[in-house]
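SUBJECT: protein chain
CONTENTS: sequence, structure tokens:
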Amino acid sequence: MLREFRRQAFLMGSAFEFIVTATEARGEQLLDMCVQEVRRIEVLLTEFGDTSQTALLNRSAGVEPVQVDAETYAILERCATLSRLTQGAFDITAGVLKKLYNFKSGPFTWPESSRLKETLQKTGSQYIRLLDERRVLLEKPGMHIGFGAIGKGYAADRVKVLLQSEGVESAVIDASGDLTAWGLRSDGTPWKIGIADPGDPARILLWLPVDGFSVATSGNYEQFFERDGVRYSHNIDPKTGLPVHGVKSVTVISPSAELCDALATAVFVMGPDAGLHLIGQLPDTHCLVIDAQNRMHWSKNMKIN
């Protein structure tokens, strides 16, 4: 007899929830495996530990290459591809720009132009050199990479691979909103995810059935500030160093949670026109954008009932 087993855990600085449909004998064991896999990835990628490969790369910026393992190198290769694909809107070096703004506690102050210009000199995915023998060099002193815009999605994908290798036919991995699901619930109904109203996050605008797809949403309703009557998002344009405005939320749907995670941030920066044009070129990938006037824009192959 199959039933749903659930577990919540604080991992990678975020709230995760795992749901697996399994027998009584295996449910808790599978949930243990989910947590252990995300912890493994966290140790590998965290920028806050002293011994992670990310920390080693950041400490060696502008000094010397660091040899990383195959998993980290492959992630960096995909990040470089995503940066080119989005014309720089996705950039794992942009975290230093966020530190110029006080999004989480007031009072907010706009950074001085000289400090912004100086910080921009330390950013840019083009300055991440992927060398032979899995060696990586951050070319500029003071550069700092972080996987906050892709790491949770990557973790969800890896947990999915792990569970499917264990024969799990139905599960959900919710990485603080970066969600992937497949199969049917134990009662035979599909898994569904709600798209929140950015003006009232407690209200669901629409429900999407999710089977074999992943969903990620980037919104400005949790971390933001207002200046001269304009609401600015915590998302930063890596090319200008300035907070983004004009968009309230972006939801991306694709088979890969990692891709959804990265593209939700990128489309937010790019805006509805350029962002949806990009999404329209990608197979099995869909997007819903809600702009500052609460207008909905969706990609050409996305059907909203």
